[in-house]
Amino acid sequence: MAVYSIRDLEELSGVKAHTIRIWEKRYGIIQPQRTETNIRFYQDDDLKTLLNIALLNKNGIKISKIAKMSDEDISEQVAQITDIELPGEDQVDALSLSLIQLDEFKFHSILNSNIRQIGFEQTMLTVIYPFLEKLSLLWLSGAINQVHERFLILLLKQKIFGATDQLHTSMSGRSFLIFLPEQNVQELSFLFLHYMLKKRNFKVVNLGIECPIEDVISAFQNVPVDFVMTLNTDDQHDTFEESMNLLLRHINKPLIISGSAQSIVSLESNENVTILSDIVTTLKYLDKIY
Known about the structure:
Structural class: alpha/beta
CATH topology of the largest domain: Multidrug-efflux Transporter Regulator, Chain: A, Domain 2
Helix content: 55-70%
Shape: elongated
Number of helices: 14
Radius of gyration: 23 Å
Strand content: 5-15%
Oligomer: single chain
Largest sheet: 5 strands, parallel
């Protein structure tokens, strides 16, 4: 069971610490525990309660009214709100709550509502990616652990696979050979890359994750493609740069690298290499060559 300070609750819920204290004293919505030295602390149930209350309050329900609701009433109101269109920040809060509670139904409901309204690609860009950025706070505070991570990755992989399978494209455009090198953990971004390429009618040869460079070279020699593409992270710079230089000695087509350029400075001067710093830049590039 995780233990939180009031500053942890402020960062995770978006509710200012002084507001939380007012809500405690005036309405008794959560009751902190205290250490032997009289320092207040909170537990998982307090965080879940505050996230629910914050979501209702942000959507126009007065705290005085919320304080009179039972736990069941609060849960029912939250369920109703998450079924309708919410501002981006509230979407992230609702997804965070569903993850902490391991609530698969609520998680799917929020994403499906967004997909119906703005499509899968915009849902990834405006809801899922901001949500993934918030996960570091949840990890640091102890609100989530490896169980939550496995739960989340499985659900998101299901969504990306499903969206990719539903695409009905001719794939008559130019072709991409894509792979994720060894020691790279960006599987979700890699799966989304496949979706983005296929949506734009590019033919995709996907070699998958943890792919040795020797296998990429072999595939390139056997399958005619127009581009070779992969992803980069700062924490793999030594092996990544070495692998890319090896690959470049065996291919005569453009190599596109999506991700940070800080750790691969030597590759920037290679005229056969295009480095795209982030997901937005990558999308613009793909739309340009489409």
